[in-house]
Amino acid sequence: xxxxxxxxxxxVQPGGSLRLSCVASGFTFNxxxxxxxxxxxxxxxxxxxxxxxxxxTTDYADSVKGRFTIxxxxxxxxxxxxxxxxxxxxxAVYYCARGGLSGSTNSNWxxxxxxxxxxxxxx
Amino acid sequence: DIVMTQSPDSLTVSLGxxxxxxxxxxxxVLYSSNNRNYLSWYQQKPGQPPKxxxxxxSTRYSGVPDRFSGSGSGTDFxxxxxxxxxxDVAVYYCQQYYNxxxxxxxxxxxxx
Lengths: 123, 112
What we know:
The complex is a heterodimer. In chain A, the strands form two sheets. In chain A, strands 2, 4, 5, 6, 9, 10 and 11 form a seven-stranded mixed sheet that branches. The mean pLDDT of chain A is 96. Chain A has strands at 3-7, 10-12, 18-25, 32-39, 45-51, 58-60, 68-73, 78-83, 92-101, 112-113, 117-121. Chain A has no helices and eleven strands. Helices cover 0% and strands 50% of the residues of chain B. The mean pLDDT of chain B is 97. Chain B has strands spanning 4-7, 10-12, 19-25, 30-31, 36-37, 39-44, 51-55, 59-60, 68-73, 76-81, 90-96, 103-104, 108-111. Chain B is globular.
């Protein structure tokens, strides 16, 4: 079974930084696009970032561009999200999600999700 | 960015009755080269992560009960729950994966 387990969330002050991790198992990690999707308390789902299977391509939502960096370590089946210059608007549950197979046209669907990790940005 | 708009925002349905959720995209999500609609539906129960229900607008994901069905093409789509069960209480989201950034509808809350 596909498993995605996020960690690294917590409480941070505005302007601070945090790194999220997502450990994957149950599938061949290095063949899939991987994504981060967030959900502010009581709100809907918002895509944050994605990364190609080999890390060669990354994309970001405008709201996080220049502040967040997505990366992956295929040897450790782990996805990361480095978040800098955090603001209250970044407060959310952050989900790691599996996209489509690299080379497919469905790279941007989300067929498996982790349980999420909560980031709270507050002074 | 493609804007996804769902209607209604919420609906109350009796057990065993049909629930219908609509989703409209601001531009087509039908890819002409393969005639596929790049549209998926997700279910999110309280306190849980979302789960994929439908992809390619009408294909049920593995393990999804057949009371869930998706239809539509181009810019207008529908998720139908043919006979609502208690465990179907959730928020439902449509999402386009036609291009980047992928975008979600605002969600529709289904209650009994």
